[in-house]
Amino acid sequence: MGNHSAVCNVVVLRCSMILLLLLMVLVLSQETQLVSGSSMTQGSLHPQECGGRCSARCSATSYKKPCMFYCQKCCAKCLCVPPGTYGNKQSCPCYNNWKTKRGGPKCP
After folding, report:
1. Three-class SS of residue 50?
2. In the chain, where the domains are located
3. Which residues form the signal peptide (predicted)?
4. CA distance linking residue 79 with residue 38, whole number of Å
């Protein structure tokens, strides 16, 4: 009877480990989906694309250095840069909603 109990304990332990691993895979896949985003909105850029997108975004300003600095900072966080040189922030909620301590827009 004692041997049967030990076998049952091993089976329960293995099943528990498998369930725990499956749960971890599920949680990690959900986090990956949240980070990666969808189509052409928040989260669709790769970090290496931020420079080019920010160059386009900041092309019309006379304050290129601060524009590029903040745009790249925002892109690194949001993985998104709105189209055009001004406005269109509704296409990237993270970029639009990141505010300064005073409540002004952080991202150009």
Report:
1. helix
2. 1-36, 47-97
3. 1-29
4. 11
